[in-house]
Hints:
By secondary structure, the protein is mainly alpha-helical. It is 45% helix and 5% strand.
Amino acid sequence: MKRLLVTLAFVLLSLPGFAWGWPHRLIAYIGQERCTPATRAVLDRYLDLPLNNVALWTDHFRARPWAPADYSDAPNYTFQALEHAVSVDEKFRPLEHSNRPDGNGEGYGAYLRYYKTLEDYKNQTDSAVVVALKMIVHLIGDLHCPGHILYSFSKDKYDPMGGGIAGGYGIWQHKYKGKKTTLHALLDGAERIKPELKSNLAEYAAFLDKRFAPIEKESVRGTMADFIQDAARRSKVIYTWVTPGQEVDDTFYTEPSHEEVLAYLLAVSGYRTAHILNTLFDPDYKGL
């Protein structure tokens, strides 16, 4: 089974359509570079590819629109697309279950499930560990995009500020360089902060480290819930950046107030990835 997953990963990474997932590859690269030798040994046991080459696997194995509501007919290793975002309460703390009418925002609950599997990895099947690893690396990386944080506090009242498939993904239509897009798609394209470095993960990571490595120890303090709270507080400002229908270009990414949030989330998602994996797999880990 492990070999099958690896083969699928190679195929997926060769597809042009997966270029949009580049930030996930960068985050996983930053994370792997900070993994301890003990953690790397565990990763090498279960994964035949570096983290940056499996970071997009989760995006492919989402339940497709043809799946029934209970996902009973979804292929193995699919999961609900609703788990790509996290719902937060009025204090920006993540909710284990979505409180939105559309059900979107189950990402934190999914993270907790996969974390629990990896805590007990020595007693799990290889295939269960492989899937949990790929899932959790991607779910942590999803926090690089402010559009994956949903600010909706009531099951009975829809909050248009909440983003999500029925909000920021679909309703907030824009144009980027003349082509129709959405607020979510704009925010997911954070690599455009420094497009000349996009072809080299190491150079892009160095660009981010020059600014954020001094705070990496501080940035990984607390739990995943604390990280989500920090990201949610920083990210709500996105709804002041553009208005529905507005056309944008690459100055959207170089605007200092925009760039600061997007670059921070890219870097700290990478640091948090390393911190979580080291915590899980290295009993001697003392922090970044």
